[in-house]
Automatic annotation (TrEMBL):
The family this protein is said to belong to: Belongs to the inorganic phosphate transporter (PiT) (TC 2.A.20) family.
Keyword Chaperone assigned: no
Organism (species): Psychroflexus longus
UniProt protein name: Phosphate transporter
Residue ranges of the TM segments: 47-65, 77-98, 110-131, 152-174, 186-207, 228-247, 253-271, 318-335, 415-435, 471-495, 501-520
Alphabetized UniProt keyword annotations: Membrane, Phosphate transport, Transmembrane, Transmembrane helix, Transport
Membrane topology type: Multi-pass membrane protein
InterPro entries: Phos_transporter
């Protein structure tokens, strides 16, 4: 029996390692968002600073492990074997839940997930105990710490609204003071701003340390808490002088200093606060095992007879476990692609400029934006025109505010907003900690970033409906986190209760399968995005470069069209519905690719030199032809899928044979066309046009052939409709290809002159 539980404890620690990996991937947005979005320092430096913060915070987190042992449920009411079931259900659920949100790039709260997982599993086990004992469910309160769970939930909810509101107001005031051209102001009041910011960060680090470091003398902790105003005041004076010296004497960019130190501070807080969410459960299980083992050796008490009242006391976590956990977190921070994906969600929603929007608008976001515009217009009527002009001037930013060297993406927002994000998050978390108020560091840092982007007027009329939809999606996922965590952990604990060790094995296999499948899908998604990465719009200046960019797009689209046409014709011949569904998905990817390219037309044209107006027209026409090709193929794909889905008669063998014949001819032309554009050798354009015209002639003959069939032997109107539709759209597809080639032929001479 002892060996069995040792195996379960080892298993729980292995699960904790997996939880660390997925947890860090999710929570990296907390402290990387501002530094990455503003490009304050190189990425390597950001990761080094964040890694140091994570390591320090991990060592300081020992005193925070109580929430997993006694914060949500009353351990003295559960036996050892029941506690192990709760902890197993929590860890399996947490890994699957966080990995799911990481895969879709949504930051969620590890605090909320672990709290509601513990709550869900404990509630189910408690109800089972009450049922077996013949007691009513009204006795549930003796098992669950309802007051603590309610306090945590309410505190987290309130912190979301406070973080957004404070972020919006402070950023608005900061921008009024500094504007986007803040460099001159920093020479004079940068020391004061640095003093406020760095003293806030210093107090934040000091407060987190005294609350977390268990080996500090209690008198030291009390002295810090009793003299916090003196500490803040002295720190403010010290950092104001240092900041002014850095600006005037050493020519340091004080905002970069604030961002770097703020990143360290939030990374420290993340590890100190959230490490419990990843390994606290496993450590609590290990401590439970030690307590039972001592009792078992002393009196032979069975796991189902040993109450876990020992967990109610203070139990210290070994430092080496914290160091190991911190090291795993740092490694994950450096190498996790999912962490970078989650960070990009916050950066994308908060960026200052326009660009590709990740989220689609919904009815709620449209309504909110519509009423916000109305309120804004009403409020503006109260202010005089001179006041409005003055405010607007503070929020108008020159392009140089976000300029970057050629070939490198510009920052999503400036250093002023990045510093406000970090300082405000530090202050809010410090205040909550000093008053022992529960909050989620993820929710606070994310909502502060959203509030500052709103207050900075980053959500303009062109982007507001998308950004608001994104925020609502993230908040909706937070609500879903609590519900899913509670339900899933409860269900898993129920399965383990009745299924015992067999259920554990099955659940672990399913969890492993789910994680591996998620990793494969994410890897494919990253590869797809890398392969379809668009040419940087800031690099497109000349007709030569436009031709090169267009050639790359043509190769991608035509290769996709050619492959998909082959799949559709083959799948239609086999009457294979499942493969036609896959064809529909491929078609949607092609349409999305075209939409992304067309979304950036404005930026391509803006980046061109004044002398290259013709290049703009060339680029727009190229994309228009590519879109026409994809639309023709969309009709072929969808009508084929609908035909098979509705169980209509198969196309006749002769019809499939004719369609394959046309497809083979187009395949030869498109392969030659792709080679031409890949090599930028366009001497064969004339021959390609001739070959495509032959395909048009063949399609015309097949149309006449089908008309003759209808008059003689054809008796299926649905088949005729589908066949005619495919031929006519293939004809349009071919005509568009010819128009595209003729366009390139027209512009080829000009492009060749630049080579």
């Amino acid at each position: 029996m002892e060996t069995l539980y040792i195996s379960l404890i080892v298993l729980l620690f292995l699960l904790a390692i997996a939880d660390l990996v997925v947890g860090v991937s999710n929570d990296a947005v907390n402290f990387l968002n501002s530094a990455i979005g503003s490009k304050a320092v190189p990425m390597r430096t950001i990761l080094i600073v964040a890694g140091l913060g994570v390591l320090v915070g991990a060592v300081f987190s020992s005193g925070l492990m109580e929430v997993a042992r006694k914060g949500i449920f009353n351990p003295e009411m559960f036996f050892f074997d029941e506690i192990i079931i709760i902890f197993l259900a929590v860890l399996i659920t947490d890994i699957l839940l966080l990995d799911f949100f990481n895969s879709i790039g949504i930051p969620t709260s590890t605090t909320v997930s672990v709290v509601f997982e513990l709550l869900g599993a404990a509630v189910v086990i408690s109800l089972l105990k009450l049922y077996e004992n013949g007691e009513g469910f009204g006795g549930l309160e003796q098992f669950i710490n309802v007051e603590k769970a309610s306090e945590i939930s309410f505190g987290i909810l309130i912190s979301v609204f406070i973080a957004f509101g404070v972020g919006a107001v402070v950023q608005f005031i900061s921008r009024l003071i500094f504007s986007f051209d803040y460099h001159k102001k920093l020479k004079y009041i940068g020391g004061l701003y640095g003093g406020v910011s760095l003293s806030a960060i210093t107090y934040f680090i000091l407060l987190k340390g005294t609350n977390s470091i268990t080996f500090l003398d209690q008198n030291v902790v009390e002295q810090v808490l009793e003299n916090k105003l003196w500490i803040i005041g002295f720190s403010f004076l010290f950092w104001t002088v240092i900041s002014q010296m850095l600006i005037q004497v050493f020519r340091f960019h004080i905002l970069k200093v604030i961002v770097v130190l703020g990143t360290f501070a939030l990374a420290l807080a993340f590890a100190g606060n959230d490490l419990v969410n990843f390994i606290g459960v496993s450590i609590a299980a290990w401590q439970s095992f030690i307590l039972w083992q001592e009792a078992f050796l002393a009196s032979g008490v069975l796991p189902s007879q040993f109450l876990m009242d020992g967990l109610s006391g203070e139990v210290q976590t070994p430092a080496y476990l914290l160091v190991i956990a911190g090291a795993i977190m740092v490694v994950t921070l450096w190498f996790s692609s999912k962490a970078q994906y989650v960070v990009q969600t916050g950066v994308n929603l908060g960026r200052q400029g326009e660009g590709q929007e990740r989220f689609k608008p919904n009815a709620l976001s449209r309504t909110v934006v519509r009423y916000s515009v109305f309120v804004g217009q009403t409020f503006s009527q109260v202010l005089s025109d001179p006041v409005q002009d003055k405010i607007n001037n503070r929020f108008s930013y020159p392009e140089k505010a976000f300029s970057y060297k050629k070939g490198v993406a510009k920052p999503a927002f400036d250093l002023l907003r990045a510093s406000v994000n970090l300082v405000l998050a530090s202050i809010l978390i410090s205040l909550a900690t000093s008053y022992t108020l529960p909050l989620s560091t993820t929710y606070v840092t994310f909502m502060v970033a959203m509030g500052t982007s709103f207050g900075d007027r980053a959500w303009g009329r062109e982007s507001a409906v998308y950004r608001v939809a994104g925020v609502f999606n993230v908040i909706g996922s937070w609500i879903a986190t609590a519900a899913i965590a509670f339900t899933a952990a409860g269900v898993l604990s129920l399965i383990i209760w009745f299924g015992s060790y067999y259920a554990i094995v099955v659940l672990l296999i399913l969890a492993l399968f789910s994680i591996v499948r998620s990793a494969i899908r994410h890897s494919k998604q990253v590869k797809y995005q890398r392969n379809h990465k668009k040419f940087n719009k800031t690099d497109i200046i000349t007709i030569n470069e436009i031709t090169k960019e267009s050639s790359e797009n043509i190769v991608k689209i035509i290769s996709g069209v050619n492959d998909l046409l082959l799949d559709v014709v083959n799948n239609l011949g086999y009457h294979d519905l499942s493969r036609l569904k896959k064809s529909l998905k491929t078609q949607e990817e092609l349409e999305l690719m075209i939409d992304e390219l067309k979304d950036n037309i404005f930026y391509y044209i803006k980046s061109l030199e004044d002398t290259n107006v013709e290049a703009s027209k060339f680029y727009v026409l190229t994309l228009d032809y590519l879109q026409d090709m994809v639309q023709s193929l969309a009709y072929i794909t969808r009508s084929s899928h609908t035909h098979v889905s509705n169980n209509h008669k198969n196309l006749k063998f002769s019809q499939i044979r004719d369609l394959k014949s046309v497809q083979r001819d187009l395949d030869e032309v498109y392969n030659e066309l792709v080679k031409a554009f890949q090599s930028s050798e366009f001497d064969s354009i004339e021959q390609l046009i001739t070959n495509e015209k032959k395909v048009l002639d063949k399609i015309s003959d097949l149309l006449q052939k089908q008309i003759d069939r209808i008059r003689d032997t054809e008796n299926s109107p649905k088949n005729s409709k589908l066949y005619f539709g495919i031929l006519l759209e293939t004809k349009n597809l071919t005509k568009t290809s010819i128009s595209l080639l003729e366009l390139f032929k027209e512009y080829y001479e000009e492009a060749r002159q630049e080579f």
